[in-house]
Amino acid sequence: MGIKGLTKLLNDEAPGCIKEAELSSYTGRKVAIDASMALYQFIIAIRSGSEGFAAQVLTNEQGEITSHIQGIFNRTIRMLTNGIKPVYVFDGKPPTLKSGELAKRMARRQEAQSKLEAAESVEDKEKYGKRLTRVTRKHSEDAMKLLRLMGVPVVQAPCEAEAQCAELARAGKVWATGTEDMDALCFRTPKLLRRLTFGAANKQPVMEVDYQKAIDGLGLTYEQFVDLCILCGCDYTDTIKGIGPKTALKLVRTHGSIANVVRSLDKKKYQVPAGWIKGSNPAPSAKPDEATEGEDGLEGEGASNKENSEKNESAPPESDEKKKAEDAEKADDA
DNA sequence: ACTCTGGGTCAAGACGCT
DNA sequence: TGACCCAGAGT
DNA sequence: AGCGTCC
After folding, report:
1. For A238-297, how does the pLDDT look when each residue is reduced to its tens digit (9 = 90+)?
2. Which of residues 234-293 of A touch strand C (CB under 7 A)?
């Protein structure tokens, strides 16, 4: 996923929305985390790197992967001891809008598959092996079980995890979304935290993005911001050749909406992909049942964040969210 | 000359001992 | 996937 | 900081 070049664009055009802070300044906060994303990173990264052989994931006696368990266990412990309260959100059914992108991924997957079979060198084998890595249903269930046993709240999202994270944040159930993926901003998470890790070799500070300051800084409404993201290139649509972040921002500012932008484009110069955005913008509303209500202005989260520390009521936030989402169908990979 | 896009690359966790 | 670098196209 | 280990 991800919006191509959004970080850089925000840095250039709305610098006020990004700030860096020490981990300690987040103690006491609840943070929603996209679990599938984390699991994927762990499975990619946690390997026994024997020299001369392709690095292997950790497994149990049955040959089942355990890297994700190592990873999520350590990280969660680390967060808890640092006073951060994670809420892990698991993906549900992928939105149908995304099917195009998913098909592309499948194609890339198969390409990697065949390249792996043809691979000679250790490096190639490793490279293509990693490219084949996926988070399966089983991995998610392992993680859920572990987290429940640890007493850490788990949420099953009806659809995309990032969307549910943002929704939890908007509802004040958590203070922020912790992710590397800027998509969460499109779902209006009031705060987005990047690099929320606690490695002993503490590399870089936490990066905090404020949603309200971001759209204010860009001078856009929420709808325009979504339009901008679509133009920049996201998971839901193809892009228009020749239009990147900079010009996309310029165009949206000038024309007000994506529909107007498309209308005013010189079609000879820019090829608009077939079947592109019709009239109204299809905001990636990823919560079929949940997010549609409560569309009204939910002010005050972004600006007056300091007071929110008291928002952490003693009860874990999972109870009602979970119920609603429990029956949602899950994506599974064959 | 400058700005931007696009296509390539690479790396991707966390611990504890030294 | 995202960050980065470099090449090339466009302004 | 670097490096081996985690299964």
Report:
1. 778 888 889 999 999 989 888 887 777 666 667 766 666 544 344 444 333 333 333 332
2. 242, 269
Question: Which amino acid would we find at residue A72?
Answer: I
Question: Is A196 contained in some domain?
Answer: yes
Give Cβ neighbours of residue A304 (< 8 Å, ≥ 6 apart). none
Sign, Cα dihedral of A169, A233, A237, A88: negative
Q: How many domains does chain A have?
A: 1
The whole-number Å distance from A184's CA to B3's C1' is 29
Q: What is the CATH number of the domain that holds A258?
A: 3.40.50.1010
Q: What is the pTM of this model?
A: 0.82
Whether A44 sits with its Cβ under 7 A from any strand B atom: the answer reads yes
Question: What residues make up the domain containing A66?
Answer: 6-319
- Domain assignment present for residue A325? The answer is no
Assess if residue A209 is contained within a domain.
Answer: yes
The confidence score (pLDDT) of residue A196 equals 93
- Report yes or no on A46 lying in a domain: yes
The candidate with the shortest Cα–Cα distance to A88, out of A141, A130, A18, A24, is A141
